[in-house]
Amino acid sequence: MIGRGSGEWRRVVLLLPTATTIIGRLIQLAVLILVASTATGAERGMLIAGIGLLGSFAILTDSGAANFILSTAGDSLSRGEYIRVVAFHAGLATIGSAVAMSFVLVSTGPHATVRAIVLLGAVALSQIFDGTGRSVRAPLLVARRDGLFSIPDIVNFLAKAPLVLGAVMTRDLSWLLGLPIASCIVTGGTFALVVRSIRGASFSRNGLFRRVLEFGATGSLSALYSQAPLVIGSLVLPLNQVAALALVYRIVQPLEMVPGTVSQQLTPRIRSRPNGPGFYWASFACAGLLVSVLLLIGAPLIEKAVGGALEPRLVFLIIVGSISIKWGNYALVAFVMGIGLVRARFVLTLFVGMFAVTMSALLAPIYGAPGLAAVTLVSEVALSAGFGLLFARMGTAGASA
Hints:
Layout: H1 2-38, H2 41-60, H3 65-70, H4 79-108, H5 114-142, H6 146-170, H7 179-194, H8 208-236, H9 239-252, H10 257-266, H11 277-297, H12 299-306, H13 313-321, H14 323-338, H15 342-394
């Protein structure tokens, strides 16, 4: 009985990172819904488009620090290297947010307001701290301390929930200016605790940032095909279409933190697992399909929450339709990273990313937001097919049978 109980507890602990990630994303979703339902006119469009672009550039400029740490044995990462890697991530995240703000100002033009810029700045700072926090906590997953990894997400939620609730009750978005303060305190406190646990040998490792960027560049290219439609659309489409596309992306894409977190947990364990890539793809894809169905059923409630219809409706349907394939691809990425094929993933995502950029530039002026949504779906299919060919050539595809 004791053994069974301890086994069940270990399974609960393994689920904690995913569960607390969902909790954290609920705050982000609540902020988006609050902005969509509270702001009006051009300011509403600017804030929604801005939040969307901030999210896109956060993904595009991700350093790869978390994945680098996850793929590095705990006893081979020194404290100095850990500090440098975390600082490197924070610097790139800051650059990404600055570029995103520039795109927002270009796409909104004369519609920009000082209040909207200040609010977006607060969201950007909060995003920088939260994103850096995942790299800060990565050593805890390497050490299989999944429960401790989850605690900062819980604290972050408890700190931010009153701010969002205050904004909802007063209909005053100024409450959101407190978000970066909460994120800074949580991330800073977590760093202070985790850095003490880093006890790897202290030696000079050549090309540290280059190795980190191998993970980051690959991740950025993976993000390129999913984020290119919104980024390119912000330069081509009217503000109302950019806002419509950004709204759907920011409702759907935060849910990817679920397969993203599970895949991070899977990456360092993949070598000891007996199943092949097909098994993991099917498992993740089925979960994504369930989410798609729930979103379609809940569309009327979503529209009520954001204070308007999700138009063009075709954008919502296409992006929701891509969720299952997208989630399955997260599993394939974890498999590839776990067996050390980082550069193979780089080449594949490079081709898919270039395809997405080209098609976005061609389709945006002709088909508008629906055409850009279609690029996301086709790109996910292309990535799955590419991974399938890679595994077939390796002779591992049959291992999942």
